[in-house]
Write a structure and sequence with these properties.
The chain is an alpha/beta fold. It has eleven helices and eight strands. 31% of the residues lie in helices and 13% in strands. It has a six-stranded mixed sheet. The chain starts with 13 loop residues before the first helix and ends with a helix. Bound molecules: 2-acetamido-2-deoxy-beta-D-glucopyranose. 2-acetamido-2-deoxy-beta-D-glucopyranose binds next to loops. InterPro entries: Glyco_trans_8, Glycosyltrans_8_dom-fam, Nucleotide-diphossugar_trans. Its EC number is 2.4.1.-. Its main location: membrane.
Length: 277
Amino acid sequence: MAFYNSPLGLLSFLLLLLLSATATATTSSSGGIRLGIIRKPTPYVPIFREAPAFRNGESCNDNRIHVTMTLDANYLRGTMAAVLSMLQHSMCPENVEFHFLCTRFEPDVEASIKSTFPYLKFKVYRFDSNRVRGKISKSIRQALDQPLNYARIYLADIIPADVKRVIYLDSDLVLVDDIAKLWEVDLEGKVLAAPEYCHANFTKYFTILFWSDKSLAMTFDGRKPCYFNTGVMVVDVDKWRQGRYTQRVEEWMAVQKQKRIYQLGSLPPFLLVLAGN
Ligand SMILES: *[C@@H]1O[C@H](CO)[C@@H](O)[C@H](O)[C@H]1NC(C)=O
């Protein structure tokens, strides 16, 4: 696997705080064109100020950058912060196209994206949580057990077939540089690139049960596995589909159902299939 060392992994919560502080204002954007959409506040979906229109610079071509994120009312502030930071730091913001995955269509959430970013190119897709429901094992943190956390495993089946490369981003980060740089990362023929961290003790991501079962542990034979963060991934979607990576990750989730081989949620099966490859 090709890994991309980036500072994107752990990101500023400051911006999230800033956004929540301004989230109650309705419109009055500075500099941007106002469309005058004023949404009714609901108990669930916060109101966001309309973002200015971000336009392409003169040197832009029309190559699309495809970004996938999950979408859900609970993490909407994070999504807004991520999208805004991406547009702000992009030379060619109009080239960025978003593919949002949600477990159920929430019209308020979609309307909120539309009114905050009236010019955003985005589509919302439903991720059928039944695909994963029976496969999720209880982890040490309940938040990790939400079906939407597992949507990244299925994104290759969900986004349009003509999308060949995608950047998957968690909704708890902000970008501090141009997404185009990440988009252009050389995958060196590998299926996926992610920020890798080799100073963690890899043994600890799996249980004694795993390491003591030779037939399981041998999966890492000939590999030099390191922890990697599945919150920022560049995926060759074609390779993912052809290599049936969704099924390979699912197989490990099925093993976990039989025998507790790890403690965390959706990360360890990714490590099992891809770490050190
Ligand atoms: C990593 O953790 C395991 C289990 O806790 C321990 O046995 C091993 O010595 C550790 N390795 C290093 C390099 O610290």
